[in-house]
Specification:
By secondary structure, the protein is α/β, with parallel strands linked by helices. The chain is 41% helix and 14% strand. The strands form two sheets. A five-stranded parallel sheet has the order 7-6-5-8-9. The chain has a four-stranded parallel sheet with strand order 2-1-3-4, with helices on both faces. The termini are close together. The structure holds phosphoric acid mono(formamide)ester and norvaline. Norvaline is lined by residues 123, 128, 162-164, 227-228, 231-232, 267.
């Protein structure tokens, strides 16, 4: 059975550790593994804008010895209504993996259902699991080891109903972290995702806290994270969201409440003065540039791991 990576809980805690260990090794020894030498092709498809994901998968596949074929939905037949199943049937005959950024999770599940090669979620409305691998790898690197992740308090404040919040819940619980989500009323995470995260945490020693208080979420946290208040597709609600999320900004006070030396994460792109202040994003406790670099190493590790199944 081919393995896919559509959600953070598509890997077990042990498998996540293996991928993160390889990611840390690849930062030190960039060409250590080359599963796509030949070169084998990997399709990287975008239905939404991207800078980091496009860059890191393109560079990553090339560094793994392969050839990235980057496709925009707008200029392919997918954008003109060709079915996902037919697209999968064509792609699987020519590429070694399919990486896709799209809208609904149901779309990427359909691609996977029709693909004999691994399908990787490069962001959907519901999850952004490659980003969380990079975030966990960056924190592990900064704290000296992958083993250091378990037991850390990870607080995410802002839009609790978006892809990043959901992936922090599942990915953080898988890593054995205590995941706290702080969001305004009306922007809480999906109940089924919370229940799944609690189930995972019960087995890893982690825990889950869902709060409507910024202060409750971040007090004593080892890692504080946020994301844009206006995800791709939410643009029409921009003003309403900026108003609703004001009390959930990461700023100097957040760091006073968090554990001393707490690390700060943001998947980027960041909007300074909105979800995070410039002084925190650009400050000493910020891991955001290492986090962005780890998109490359973590995705190379993931693709290598999937290629070896
Ligand atoms: N963090 C992230 O996924 O960035 P892009 O949207 O630029 O790919
Ligand atoms: N939540 C954001 C993440 C961007 C990388 C979005 O979906 O737009």
């Amino acid at each position: 059975m081919v393995r896919h990576f559509l959600r953070d809980d598509d890997v077990t805690p042990e498998e996540q550790r293996e991928i993160l260990e390889l990611a840390l090794q690849l930062r030190v020894d960039r060409y250590k593994v080359q599963p796509f030498v030949g070169p084998k092709a990997v399709a990287v498809i975008f239905d939404k804008p991207s800078t980091r994901t496009r860059l890191s998968f393109s560079v990553g596949v090339a560094e793994l010895g392969g050839y990235p074929v980057v496709i925009d939905a707008q200029t392919s037949q997918l954008g003109r209504g060709e079915s996902v199943a037919d697209t999968a049937r064509v792609l699987e005959r020519q590429v070694s993996a399919i990486v896709w950024r799209t809208f609904g999770q149901d779309c990427i599940e359909e691609m996977a259902a029709h693909s004999s090669v691994p399908v990787v979620n490069a962001l959907t409305d519901e999850f952004h699991p490659c980003q969380i691998l990079a975030d966990l790898a960056a924190v592990a690197d900064a704290r000296g080891s992958v083993g250091a992740l378990a037991g850390l308090d990870l607080a995410y404040v802002g839009d609790g109903a978006n892809n990043m919040a959901h992936s922090y819940l599942l990915g953080g619980a898988t890593a054995g972290m205590h995941v706290r989500i702080g969001s305004p009323e009306g922007y809480a995470p999906d109940a089924a995702v919370v229940a799944r995260a609690e189930e995972i945490a019960a087995g890893t020693g982690g825990s889950v806290l869902i709060s409507h208080s910024h202060d409750e979420a971040v007090t004593g946290a080892d890692v504080v994270a946020t994301d844009t208040w206006v995800s791709m597709g939410d643009e029409a609600e921009g003003d309403e969201r900026s108003h609703a999320f004001t009390a959930f900004q990461i700023n100097a006070r957040t760091l006073e409440l968090a554990a001393p030396g707490a690390h700060v994460l943001h998947c980027l792109p960041a909007y300074r003065g909105k979800e995070i202040t410039a002084s925190v994003l650009d400050g000493d406790q910020s891991l955001v540039w290492l986090e962005a670099e780890y998109r490359l190493h973590a995705q190379k590790a993931l693709l290598t791991w999937l290629a070896e199944r």
